[in-house]
User: Fold this.
Amino acid sequence: MKVLAVGFSTKITTRLRFPTRCAVGTTARQAKDYDKGVERVNIAVIADVHGRVLLAFKLVARYQRETGEHVDLILQCGDMGLFPDLTKLDRATIRHARKESTELGFHDDFLTSRHDVRQVLESLDCNLVAVRGNHEDHEFLDGLERATDEAVFPVDCYKRIHVLKTGVPFRFEAGDENVTILGIGRVGPPVGETELNKPKYIQERETERILELDRAPIDVLVSHDSARDFFTSGFGMAEIRWVLDQCRPVYHFFGHSGRPFHSLTDTNGVTVCAKMSDFEWDEKDPGKPLKAGCLGILRWRNRQAHAFEVVSAPWLREYTAHTWRRLG
Assistant:
């Protein structure tokens, strides 16, 4: 497959600022409509959760209470830490779990029903839809994926966490509005890698599905990896670059690199590329709050009327490595 070199403008496409959040890709007229409660799809966006799945649901529930704004869907950019069998943990997850037990949150909170978890989930009527990262049990996910013809499949006991099949468009509807989402999971092999069939790397069947898209209309692209050469030469995924050039989605959300939140416009002149901060504790802060830029809200009506914000409200800092379990 022939792909173009990746290049980006240095200007962040920020056209409107809210009091406590950074908004991207909207106009003042559209924002005024949003404030009036115009019908739209509201999507929370997060990245590398690494087991802190229950915390993600808690934050979205808190966001709804604080703002009065309903969230229809949680979109997650991979590395959920989907390990139902702890004997299948990869070395990195084992290393991190020795220091931080939340790395095992999917296993602890979402395999068998628990009252405290149900209480949180019952406060929301939105599901979480994720792509695969490189730190998941891919054998477990492969079995579930083969068992369905749907674009998404549930992975937890509550049927609230779903995984997107790579290269299969997913049309999400809320009320009279809809948005078409494409997921690309796993990561691309770096230059020089010889073992291309490792489960963490995009698989041949997934690449074939992507190439069959041609110029399919995609509104939102969500992936774990970045486009090839986005941050570092020789790293990233060529298939993502292909989708950006051929399908020209309005947004591309991703994670993986460990870098802080960063947003800019792709060379295709259309796509707002937003690298979300990891959904983890800020070890540089003594209080260990969540990292800035780890939660975003996409308000979507159509390809002409939309806005994306990074949530930076003061209440976010209440959720720390020491307090999050007892907070609602």
